Model the fold of this input.
Amino acid sequence: MDLTTLASKPGAKLALGLGGALLVLLLCLACAWGGYRHGFTTATDKGDAKYAKLEAAQEAANRLASDTARRIVDAEVIRRDKLAEELADARTTIAAQGRAITNRRIEDASRSVVAVDGHCTFGPGWVGLYNESWGFGHGDPAGPAAAPGPGGEAGAIPTAQAGEFRQGGVTPEDIQV
Done:
């Protein structure tokens, strides 16, 4: 049977036409599916490549930021240590200068002591400097202890603390420890 014999039958032309159309439709669908798969694969590959490139750039930026931050922190630690050392040196120098000044003031006050009746007494200036050098304050009666309040009367000289001398006549024997 050849094609002309089949085409001569009345319903065969319709069947051949529908079969041919179906064959063309299947070929079109196969081409569309192949094109879709090719486009999807190409787009996925391009997207993955761009994503990998972006990820690498982000990793490099993070590494650079981390290194920069680490250098900044290291510089600040070095700066802090240097400032701490300078502060310690300054405190040591200031303390030594303060001791030297206080000792010189005590020596100056001690030189001006006058022996009356054969007794050597130190005046209020020397006693104040002595108390100040031991960290008890100057013992100024006009200071906060002289203010009126529940603990005392106005103008009262505060009582001496342990190791502190009262303002007034103090002999060298009182000072010997």
